[in-house]
Amino acid sequence: MISFELADPRIGGVMVTEALVSPDYRRAHVRLALQGTPAEQKTSLEAIEHAKAFLKVQLTERLQLFRTPDLHFEADLPAALAAKAPQILKRIKRGRAKA
């Protein structure tokens, strides 16, 4: 929905990487992979926040939910850092972090 149905030109190169819904379906934390410069990423995130009500209505209609969660959007790790994350976690597990 974000990539194809939001007509806001500020939104570019956004993909949903994860959606974590609380057990009571009241909140949903949606992680987004944002492309572009940090300024473009911030602008895209602001545009998605602005479209939150539209997205919530669309989810309610399409999924026929009894209770639609409040959507909270956050930027996911950049691709370069996400690729390094397993290595960093291994170092932390071993107890010796390298600079």
Q: Largest beta sheet: what is the strand line-up?
A: 1-2-3
- Alpha-carbon Rg, integer: 16 Å
CA-to-CA gap between the ends? 41 Å
The main pleated sheet reads as: 3 strands, mixed
Query: What fold name goes in the CATH topology slot?
Result: GMP Synthetase, Chain A, domain 3
Number of strands: 3
Q: Helix count, per DSSP? A: 4
CATH class: Alpha Beta
Can you characterise this structure?
45% of the residues lie in helices and 22% in strands. The protein is an alpha+beta fold and 99 residues long. The chain has one domain: K homology (KH) domain (GMP Synthetase, Chain A, domain 3, 2-Layer Sandwich). It starts with a helix and ends in a 5-residue tail after the last helix.
In short:
This protein is of the alpha+beta class. It has four helices and three strands; from the N terminus they run αββααβα.
Keywords:
single chain, 99 residues, alpha+beta, GMP Synthetase, Chain A, domain 3, 3-stranded mixed beta sheet, 22% strand
